[in-house]
Prior knowledge:
The complex is a heterodimer. By secondary structure, chain A is mainly alpha-helical. Chain A has helices at 2-15, 20-41, 47-60, 76-86, 90-102, 106-110, 115-120, 123-132, 138-145, 152-161, 167-179, 181-192, 195-198, 211-228, 233-247, 252-274, 280-283, 286-314, 335-347, 354-379. The longest helix of chain A has 29 residues, at 286-314. The termini of chain A are far apart. Chain B is 68% helix and 0% strand. Chain B has two helices and no strands. The longest helix of chain B has 29 residues, at 18-46. Chains A and B meet through helix 2, helix 7, helix 8, helix 14 and helix 18 of A and helix 1 and helix 2 of B.
Amino acid sequence: MQAFSSWLGTWASRVADMTVTDWVSMVAMWVIGGILIFLAIKKDMEPTLLLPMGFGAIIVNLPGVAAPGSEHGMFGPLSTLFDAGIANELFPLILFIGIGAMIDFGPLLSNPKLMIFGAAAQFGIFFTFCMASMFFDFNDALSIGVIGAADGPTSIVVAQQLGSKYVGAIMVAAYSYMALVPIIQPPVIKLLTTKKERLIRMPYEPKSVSKLTKILFPIIITAVVGIVAPDSVYLVGFLMFGNLIRECGVLNSLSETAQKVLANLITIFLGITIATKMYYKDFLAVNTLLILGLGLVAFIIDTAGGVLFAKFLNLFMKKKVNPMIGAAGISAFPMSGRVVHKLGLEADNQNFLLMHSMAVNVSGQIASVIAGGIILSFGLGAL
Amino acid sequence: MMSFLNLAFNPSNFVNNLGYMGVGMVIIIAVIGVIIAATSILNAVTGKKK
C-alpha cells in the first residue's frame, strides 16, 4: 500500500501542472501517432519510418514521460539518441552510405543527359524557400524549403546545421510527403500534361557503361560538388562513398551490409528518435501546420517544375521525351520513378517508362543533395 | 490546443529572395551540366569501341 501511494505521489507530482489543454493536446498527439502507424501498416506508406515515428510520438506524449520542468521535452534515452545521432547529423549521413550502396546509376550513366531533369525538379525547394521567407526567419525558411528535396537525410542535415527551430515539423513533413508521393504527384502530372504527351513512348536503348566509369562517377561527383558547395561535401560524399563500395567490385560484403544491416539499423533509430521532436508543446502549433502546408507546396512545385521543364525541352528536341519523366526528378526514390512508370502504363499499356523514370529519379537524388548544399551555403553565408 | 504564435507576414520577402532562387537554380543546373559533360567524356573515353 505504501509503495502504491509512493508511486501515486510521484506520478501526481509529474502531471500536477498539466491543464485540460495539455491533456487534450496529448490525446491529439496519440491520434497523430496512431494515424502514422495506420498509414505505415495499412497503406504501406514509408512503413520503415512512419511506424517508428508514430510509436515514438505516442511514447513522448504520455503524461509524465517528459522530464519535469523541461519546456521542450527531455525524454531520457530518446533524447540521448537524438543528441548522439541527429543533433550532430550522424544518423542521416550514415544512412546515406546505405542509400548510396542501394543506387544503381547504370541507367543514368547510359544516358547522362537525363540528369538535367533532376536539376529542374529542385525548383520547388527555392520557390518554397521564397514562400516560407514571408513567415519565417531566413534560416528557418531555407530549412523549410529543403523539404522539397524529398530527401529525409538532407532535410535533417540542413535543418540541424542551420539551427532551425522547426526540425521536428520539417522531418515529419519530409518523410510524410515522401510516403504520399503516389497520391500527390499523379494529379499534378495529369493537370500539366495532355493525353497525347502521356502517350509519348521512349524506347530504352541501353549503352554499355564500363566498370571504370561506374567507379569514377561517384568520385567525380563528390569532387565537383565539394568544390562548388564545400558545406555539402559530407552529404554527397557519404552518398557517393556508399555507391563506390557497391561499384568497386571488391567490397561486396561491405556493400551488402551497407544496403541492409546498416541502413535498417539507422532507420530504426532515426524514426523513433525523430519522435522526440513531436512533443505536443512544440508540435501542436500554427507554425507546424504552416510548415506542413509549405512542404506540400514544395512537392507540388517540384513535380510541376520537372514536368514543365521537360515540356519546354520538347519544344527544341527532335526526339520528344515523355514530359512525365520530369516529375521523377524529385528525389523520393524509388516511389517517384514508379509513379511515372505507372502513369505511362495507364495511358498506354505498352508504354514502359521505368528505366527512364528511374534514371531521372536517381539524378534527383544527386540534385537534391547538391540543392541541399547550395541552401546550406546560403544559410551559412558562403554564397 | 494550438499555441498561436505571433506569425510574421512579410510579403516583400518573397520578392527580395527571388534572387536566391535564381542563383540557386543557375548553380544547380551548371553543376549538373558539368557532371553530364564529365560523365559523357568518361563514357567516351572508357567505352568499348565497336
